[in-house]
Structures are given as structure tokens and as C-alpha cells.
């Protein structure tokens, strides 16, 4: 039975499967074991917080994808995937976190039963949810299989977004705009940081314009002052201070599609140093955006960005962006290309990325970042949040 | 410089290190590469959402733990760990998600530089954040090392909680009590599910009694009706319905310490079938709790629980609990013992677990679950939320 709330039409799932099979042929694999939860969802509709146990979607040379996971989660698969119930396989609960046996023994039996014990099998070797032990178990159980590293093979097929995917990302963009408006509205000196984060979460999940909010693949990052010299600290109950910058790296999410956007908040006029950094970032971003168009390379954006930034006296030694879309924790990036030197990925209409020109200075950080869509001729910001530093009071 | 908000005293970190080194000796490894974010935090104080890139804490035969990760996250380590800055190592940003090189090449150089190229090195082989590719890279770069599977070695040292850890879990328990009170207070037929989840999140992060809420390692699971036949579905914007059960599996979190607790909500009197299931679960839980005491095995709890449940006409074919405490996404379980047949882990005072007697029936689910502490003589529920079905109106 096809779930009534399947996020995409059957034709779209079918087209995705065709694209993936073509890519499999290119790397020479007959069968693909997909363990990245975002790839699993993109291929089948599966949606559930079950990626803390071993699970996979298997793409064979023909036929529908197979869903495989813990028996109790097979019930969740039956509620969310488009395939028939005989394409859903559950393993017994004693395989869960048991040092004496590994769930991949069960997957190996399934692969054998499908006639794939001697197949060329693709694996997502550097995916979070494909552990060293999972790999060792497969290699031991299926000694005649030929293993192919198919890491991020499916991710690459996700790089160009369909019209429905772009619609979902636009909804996510409206949600993150509202989250930043909530910050500007609620934040006050003396307010405990976690109280503000509670309000941000409320705005994220309530959604806007009748579109509900889903959970983000990264929780709000919201360091203040010296803590903002580091990019990935979360929150505590310290009070917001006048004279201290806080950056908010957050995302709106609609049906697992992400629109991340960051802003940096000051109470009162920021120090001149921050205004200088702001101007440099804005000018460098504008230079980068001019290069964000079909036919250019990913590095064209970062090279233009970095050249301008350096000319203005600042330096950033990390990538300044990465693709975004459908994702599950722990990351909202798609792990394909990066906006950095030597990345020659050709930009195409429908690609989406997080332009991430964050500067972490010696005494704080400044993040003014945007979700961006490559259009037929150039690039478009998905959000209308006022750019620049966020100044209150 | 020791961070002012380090969650535990230096003596506690020192005792943890001693315990881990003793366990390393037992499995015969000189060096341990710790990639589980909860283990990294427990050993060093490190706290940041950076586990989406490769990182580790390394325990050598002597000296402080070493923190290793992406250069930008080394700044976060300097803000959160107790070790001196020369124990913190950052790798260059071009290693991030780059098919041409792997961060473990950098870790291999660090291990060599420490004189450990020929050491017996323990690895957390089945940890989410230790991928197949990470393992293959280490094996290739350090051909003379001897690799030891040290999966969940550190997790086991975390099983018995210290007084401060128990204090943190009691605070988390108060937070989850308040989250369930919020559900009872706010939920109404016709309310959109995501609006209720927004309120739950707000209560989770705002915290109670002056103790702030941290993010949970699993987002709220809140399926209704037929969707509640599956355990791990999240939410959408469907309206809550009279005559339909919704279960809420949620956790309060204080400084990464979790108190998970579930309740099942009905508007109006539940059907007789659910009252029968409720009575069976309550009686089976009581039987299990009688076995929850120092000296007993983990399986004594589940055997008593299952025997009672079966006698009353119900069956549960999955484990009925697992240890809890410090954790990071995607799981709040500790991955050591399970409450299931044949698990002969000896219970000790200070152990904490989620007693998880969920039943997924043919037309819905019932979850009434508790965080539990093993005391000197028996066991204690950490929460005072009224037990049984949650009935409103």
C-alpha cells in the first residue's frame, strides 16, 4: 500500500532509481547497499529515527529497492515506503547491540537469497552509519562478493534538485527566516541563552504559512563572545550580554529538506572591527555570487570569495560552502562538492548550497550565511532575511 | 586553561582515565582511539556538534588524553577540555569530505609521531563515527600496528554512574516530567501534532528549577493511531484525534545526561483493550522491578517481565530496556547490556537504565516507560510522572 503522505510521486522515485542504476553501471557494481539515511529516504520515502541500528536500502540490477532493518522498524518502513511489503525485510531483535553477532550477518543472508553472493556490491564506505565492523562482517560472510567503494554515489544523484524538492526548500527557507525574526524579537541582554534556544526551536517546529517544521540535522549552534571563536559549540544557560556577539547557525526544515542560514547578533552598535569584517564578508560574498552560475566550477565561487576577502585584509582557511537538501543527523551537508580551491564540480541549474563565509576571529566569530539555488542563468538567495549583522537596541 | 564550566572535577576525569587504562590492559591494547562522541566527552569534557567530521580522543599508556579533530573544532576543544593546549591537535580543512584523502591519514601521522606506529591500538569497530573507510585508511597507513577491537570498552566504564552523574540525571528526570506535564496541559483534539512538538521542545530546552535543558540524542517520537504500530516515526502536522492513541517517547537532558520516559495519551476513556494492555504492562514492570537489584543479572529483570506479560496474554519480542546516561545523537542508549534473555550482566549500584516495556499492537502502540537507578539494595524510578495511560478530558 502506498503511503498517503509520500513526499514525492512514484514517477520521481522511479526517475531517481534510474539515475542511480546508471551511476552504478559507471562504477561497475550490480548491487548497491545504501546505508546513508538521506539516501535511503530519497530512494524509498523511508522516514524514521532508526538509523541508530544497522539498516539499509538495497538496489539490485532490477526490481524495486529492498528495505532492510530491525524487525520493529520494518513496521515503520511499511508505513512510509512506496515499495510493496514483500520488499521490506526485518531482522530479529537479538542482533541489536550484541557482541556475539552482527546484523550484517542477516543482510548477507538476504543478499545471498537474492542471488547476489558473487555480485559486485557497492558500499558507502565513509558513511557514518556504515561502521568498520559492518564492513568486516560483510566481507567475512560473503567471501565471493566483489566490493566496490560507492561512497557518495547516491549523494551525487541528489545534487540537482527537482521542482518539488525546490518547493520544499523554499518552505524551509521561510521557516528559517521566521526563526531569525524570532531571535531579533526575543533576544535581550540578560536573557538566558537556553530560553532563547527554546523559542528558536518552537519557531522551527511550528513552521510558517501552514507548513510544519521538521527537526534539523544539526541543532542550533549559538556561541557568544570567546566561545564564538569556535564554530560548533551549542548552548548553556549563560545570559546574553551587551557588548558581546552571538552567532546563530540554524536551519529551517520542511520534510527533511534544509535551508540553513546564520546571523550574528549584537545589542547596540557593533565594534568597528566587526563592521569592517561585515563589509569584507558582504563584498566577498557578492564577488562569489557573481560566479555562482551554470557552467562555472564550484571553486570559481570560493576563489572569487577568497580573493576579495584577502584583498580586504581577512583570511578564511576553511571551505566557504557545501551542497544542501535532504538530510538526517549528524549533518545537513550533502558530502559531494565543496566550495574550495581545486573543486572543479560544474554548477548546474537546480543545485543548492549553503554559502558559508563564516569568519572566526581571535576574540569572536561572525557568521552571515545563505542557502542558495543555482538558477538557469545565475544564482538566487532562498531567504530574504536582512543581510549583514543583526543589531538590536 | 581549565574551562570554568567543566561538567566534572579533575579528580573524576582522572579516575575515569585510570579505569579505562585498566580495561585497555585487560584487552591488551597500549593505545585506544576513541571515536564515540559520548566517550570523548566523558574522558575529556569535549562538547560540540562536530562529530559529523572525523575526530577522536586518543588514550596512550600514560599522559593526558589527546584530542584530535578538524582544525576549526580544535578551537572548540580548547574551550571545553581539561587537558593542556599541547594535547589538542587539529587537521587541515582540505581533509574534510575529500575523496582524494582521508583524515585518518593525519591521525596516522599523529600516532606515529607519538611513537605508536607499532603499538597495539584499540578501535571502536562498531561505533557510528568510525566508518569502514576510516578503518581501511588506518590499516593502510600504519601497517605495523596491531589492531584490537575495543568496541564499547569505554562505554562499559560508564555503566556505573558517579554521584555527580546521578545528580545530572535527576535534573534530566525533572525536565522530562515537565515535558509530559506540558503534553497533558496542551494537547487537545484538533491540535496539529507539530504544534504540540514545538511546545515539548520548548519545555525540554527551557528546563526546570533553574536547570537548563540540553538537546536530546533522539528527537521526540510521537506516532498516533496506526503509525504507533511502529516505534520510531517522528511527527507531521496531522491533527490529534479523539479515539486515537499517541505515544510520546521523549527525554529530558541535562548537560548531555538523559532521562528518557514515554507515555501514551488518550482523549477520553481508552478502549478496554488498551486498559487490559496497560494493566499487563504495569504488573509485568512491577515484576521486573523486583528483580532490579545489585547482584542480579540484567536478564532477571526481562525474564520476570516477560513471564508476567506472557501469563497476562501479551508478548514482546524485543529487549525491554538498555542502559542510559551521557550520549550524543543518534542514540541515548549506552550500547553495553540489554534487558533480554541470556544477558548475564551483573547489576551494580549506580547503574541506570531505560525500562522500556513498549508494546506495539496490531492497531496502535502503548509505551509507559521509565528511567531507573539501581540503588544499594533495589531500584528507584527517577521520575514521579503518574504511571499508566495518560488520559485527558
Automatic annotation (TrEMBL), chains A, B:
InterPro entries according to UniProt: Creatin/AminoP/Spt16_N (IPR029149), Creatinase/aminopeptidase-like (IPR036005), Creatinase_N (IPR000587), Pept_M24 (IPR000994), Peptidase_M24B (IPR050659)
Q: Where is the Peptidase M24 domain?
A: 168-376
Record-linked CDD domains: APP_MetAP (cd01066)
Q: Creatinase N-terminal domain: which residues?
A: 16-160
Which Pfam families does its entry note?
A: Creatinase_N (PF01321), Peptidase_M24 (PF00557)
* Name of this chain's protein: M24 family metallopeptidase
Amino acid at each position: 500500500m502506498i503511503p498517503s503522505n509520500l513526499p514525492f510521486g512514484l514517477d520521481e522515485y522511479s526517475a531517481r532509481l534510474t539515475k542511480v542504476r546508471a551511476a552504478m553501471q559507471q562504477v561497475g557494481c550490480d548491487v548497491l547497499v545504501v546505508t546513508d539515511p538521506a539516501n535511503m529516504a530519497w530512494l524509498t520515502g523511508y522516514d524514521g529515527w532508526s538509523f541508530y541500528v544497522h539498516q539499509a536500502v538495497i538496489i539490485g540490477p532490477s526490481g524495486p529497492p529492498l528495505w532492510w532493518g530491525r524487525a520493529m522498524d520494518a513496521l515503520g518502513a511499511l508505513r512510509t515506503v512506496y515499495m510493496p511489503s514483500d520488499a521490506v525485510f526485518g531482522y530479529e531483535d537479538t542482533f541489536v547491540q550484541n557482541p556475539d553477532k552482527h546484523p550484517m550477518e542477516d543482510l548477507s543472508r538476504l543478499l545471498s537469497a537474492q542471488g547476489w553472493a558473487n555480485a559486485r556490491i557497492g558500499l558507502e564506505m565513509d558513511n557514518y552509519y556504515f561502521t568498520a565492523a559492518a564492513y568486516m562482517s560483510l566481507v567475512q560472510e560473503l567471501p565471493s562478493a566483489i566490493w566496490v567503494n560507492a561512497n557518495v554515489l547516491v549523494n551525487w544523484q541528489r545534487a540537482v534538485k527537482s521542482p518539488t524538492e525546490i518547493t520544499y526548500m523554499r518552505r524551509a527557507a521561510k521557516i528559517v527566516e521566521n526563526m531569525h525574526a524570532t531571535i531579533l524579537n526575543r533576544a535581550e541582554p540578560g536573557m538566558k541563552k537556553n530560553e532563547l534556544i527554546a523559542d528558536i526551536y518552537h519557531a522551527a517546529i511550528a513552521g510558517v504559512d501552514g507548513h510544519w517544521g521538521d527537526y534539523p540535522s544539526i541543532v542550533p549552534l549559538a556561541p557568544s563572545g570567546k566561545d564564538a571563536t569556535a564554530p560548533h559549540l551549542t548552548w548553556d544557560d549563560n545570559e546574553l550580554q551587551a557588548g558581546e556577539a552571538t552567532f546563530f547557525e540554524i536551519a529551517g526544515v520542511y520534510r527533511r529538506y534544509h535551508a540553513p542560514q546564520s546571523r550574528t547578533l549584537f545589542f547596540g552598535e557593533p565594534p568597528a572591527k566587526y563592521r569592517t569584517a561585515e563589509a569584507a564578508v558582504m563584498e566577498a560574498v557578492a564577488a562569489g555570487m557573481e560566479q555562482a552560475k551554470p557552467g562555472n566550477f564550484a571553486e570559481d565561487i570560493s576563489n572569487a570569495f577568497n580573493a576579495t576577502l584577502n584583498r580586504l585584509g581577512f583570511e578564511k582557511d576553511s571551505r566557504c560552502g557545501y551542497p544542501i537538501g535532504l538530510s538526517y543527523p549528524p549533518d545537513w551537508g550533502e558530502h559531494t562538492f565543496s566550495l574550495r580551491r581545486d573543486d572543479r564540480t560544474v554548477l548546474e541549474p537546480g543545485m543548492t548550497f549553503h554559502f558559508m563565509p563564516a569568519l572566526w576571529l581571535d576574540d569572536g566569530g561572525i557568521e552571515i550565511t545563505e542557502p542558495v539555488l543555482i538558477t538557469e542563468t545565475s544564482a538566487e538567495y532562498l531567504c530574504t532575511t536582512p543581510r549583514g549583522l543583526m543589531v538590536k537596541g
